[in-house]
């Protein structure tokens, strides 16, 4: 197994990208953060400062630019789905070289866009489960007791390099099952915490009936697209996570930022329509949040 340091680009060094970039840089890898001029200047000057109950508090030196200008071994795409199309200008396909592209975005539709923009075989589907927030350029708060990445490709050496940083990394064979495994959890989490403006603890106690209805609907859609799903297993996951956890969609609403409602709720409704699965509760939540 190689231990040669990687050169990794991070397109969008926010909560997720900043955490990954900081961990990789701390472990000795070369990290190039791609961002707007103000953020890039702050990162080049001050580095990435991460505060995490799991990984500790540290500052890691990184490089920063507004556009990728050299080949890399891998490029994480960690912008919000709402900013993806514009952000790709910062990472031209010809500059990427033979590196892999690893999107860690919410939803499903980004995969087709990225495989049109970059060589399709180099785009490795990925998911991450984490609560991490950028509080200022280069300052990352990691508040969940986990940071779990799944990758749907035979990239064992790359996965092992990520594990060495402390990240929990699993390789999956079924891309559809992997993406829907996350979406079947994320959609209820995001829609309900945002609709009720509260943490998941309040949702699972004060709005449990609504939670159960959403889980039944999302499990039905997930099964219809050919991925495994079980509403009781999903509920057990919701009952285990810290009650104070908020979704990124909820945080976006609180901050007055555009939300990923279409990437998350819209993706579920499009799949439900394609497979004729009724989703009255999810449909209502998406309408109320629109």
TrEMBL record:
One of its GO terms (molecular function) is 2-dehydropantoate 2-reductase activity. Residues 177-288 form the Ketopantoate reductase C-terminal domain. It catalyses: (R)-pantoate + NADP(+) = 2-dehydropantoate + NADPH + H(+). Residues 8-148 form the Ketopantoate reductase N-terminal domain. One of its GO terms (biological process) is pantothenate biosynthetic process. Pfam families: ApbA, ApbA_C. GO terms for cellular component: cytoplasm. Transmembrane segments: none annotated. Pathway: Cofactor biosynthesis; (R)-pantothenate biosynthesis; (R)-pantoate from 3-methyl-2-oxobutanoate: step 2/2. It is an enzyme of class 1 (oxidoreductase). Keywords: NADP, Oxidoreductase, Pantothenate biosynthesis. The keyword Oxidoreductase applies. The keyword NADP applies. Its EC number is 1.1.1.169. PANTHER family: 2-DEHYDROPANTOATE 2-REDUCTASE, PROBABLE 2-DEHYDROPANTOATE 2-REDUCTASE. Catalyzes the NADPH-dependent reduction of ketopantoate into pantoic acid. NCBIfam families: apbA_panE. Belongs to the ketopantoate reductase family. This is 2-dehydropantoate 2-reductase. It comes from Kitasatospora aureofaciens. The lineage of its organism: Bacteria, Bacillati, Actinomycetota, Actinomycetes, Kitasatosporales.
């Amino acid at each position: 197994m190689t231990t040669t340091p990687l050169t990794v680009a991070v397109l969008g060094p926010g909560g997720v990208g900043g955490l990954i970039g900081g961990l990789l840089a701390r472990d000795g890898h070369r990290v190039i953060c791609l961002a707007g001029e103000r953020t890039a200047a702050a990162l080049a000057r001050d580095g990435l400062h991460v505060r995490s109950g799991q990984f500790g508090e540290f500052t890691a030196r990184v490089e920063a630019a507004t556009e990728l200008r050299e080949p890399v071994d891998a490029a994480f795409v960690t912008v919000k789905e709402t900013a993806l199309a514009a952000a790709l200008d910062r990472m031209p396909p010809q500059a990427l070289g033979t590196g892999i592209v690893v999107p860690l975005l919410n939803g499903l539709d980004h995969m087709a866009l990225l495989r049109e923009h970059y060589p399709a075989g180099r785009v490795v589907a990925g998911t991450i489960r984490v609560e991490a927030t950028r509080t200022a350029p280069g300052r990352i708060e990691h508040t969940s007791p986990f940071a779990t990445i799944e990758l749907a490709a035979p990239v064992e050496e790359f996965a092992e390099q990520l594990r060495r940083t402390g990240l929990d990394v699993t390789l999956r064979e079924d891309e559809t099952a992997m993406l829907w495994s996350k979406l079947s959890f994320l959609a209820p989490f995001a829609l309900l915490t945002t609709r009720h403006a509260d943490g998941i603890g309040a949702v699972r106690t004060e709005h449990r009936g609504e939670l159960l209805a959403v889980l039944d609907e999302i499990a039905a859609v997930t099964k219809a697209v050919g991925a495994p799903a079980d509403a009781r297993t999903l509920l057990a996951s919701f009952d285990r996570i810290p009650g104070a956890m908020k979704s990124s969609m909820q945080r976006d609403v609180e901050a007055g930022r555009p939300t990923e409602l279409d990437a998350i709720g819209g993706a579920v409704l499009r799949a439900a329509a394609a497979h004729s699965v009724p989703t009255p509760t999810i449909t209502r939540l998406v309408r109320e949040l629109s």
